[in-house]
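B., you asked whether I could sanity-check this one before it goes into the benchmark set. Here's the sequence:
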Amino acid sequence: MLQVLIIADDLTGALDSAVAFAGGGRRVLVARGVSFLAEALERAPEVLSVNLASREGDAATARTRMDACLGQIDVDKVPVVMKKVDSRLKGHVGVECAALADAMAPERIVVLPAVPQMGRVQVDGAVSGDGIDAPIALAPLFDRPVTIPDATTDAHLDDAVRVEGRVLWVGARGLGFALARRLYGRVTAGGGGLSRPLVIAVGSRDPITLRQVDVLHDLAPVTALPDGRVAGIIEREPVGILQMTDSGAGRAPADAARDFAEAVVSHLRAARPAALLATGGETAQAILDRLDIGVLDVVAELAPGLPISTVRVPWGMLQIATKSGGFGGPLLMEQIVRGR
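And here's what the prediction gave me:
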């Protein structure tokens, strides 16, 4: 029976919140879009995270996708319902939460986007901290009364989720882990390293990711794909890194991203790796599209913010780890390549 429902607006968020509940023999699934929801439900997960893929679209699309999701799930029968939001409140938070609240009629809405582990906290009704230029007031995002506890530590999050009654939980990674601790005790979702052969697909051009890749050249071959296009032969290696670069030709980012995903998938089919690390949520989405994968089994966390899932592909089982472009310290990718 479905015990926990998480509804996110992007893939990395859906995975990053779901991994909090991994372990203990629980089946934790992520539906990569509303169109894959029926397939996920057929597999009878205990925890289900759904990606609406609505962050970059307009508010009307966000509402339509939320309604389509809720049309397939009886939320009244799900004990714990969480609306996953970005800790910097990107996307259509108010619209999606209003639709979800209308469907489940909660006794209260508790808003906890704080992620103390990432240096993002909430005090006096606003979230602030690392990566946030100015405090973001939370109450104005909603069209109805909400409860906004102070939360500057994980212990504060643990205290906040002890609320009884029918609650709509609204928050980010920190809230997911607090709810998992409340339901299942201390959760250990560590899963060691990624298997070899390993392909790393670097589609993000975030400066943080670029710095992480810069230190890898002495450890593994880095193949540049200018504007996403293959410029030569991609060798099969125990660890191979494919990086989309900017040729300076002014090519449209969407076209470059499309070609990059197609090149990565072509290499995957030829190299038949055991694991894939994709940087950037859009990169992961595009690769999974081309592999025709709609549902992921979330099994572990490689490092905080790097969930590992497993999927079946034509050559067997494939581990997939995802990392948002702006996440992690400068040595994160090096540690992954070294298997630390």
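One thing to flag: Residues 55 and 61 are 10 Å apart (CA to CA). Otherwise nothing jumped out at me.
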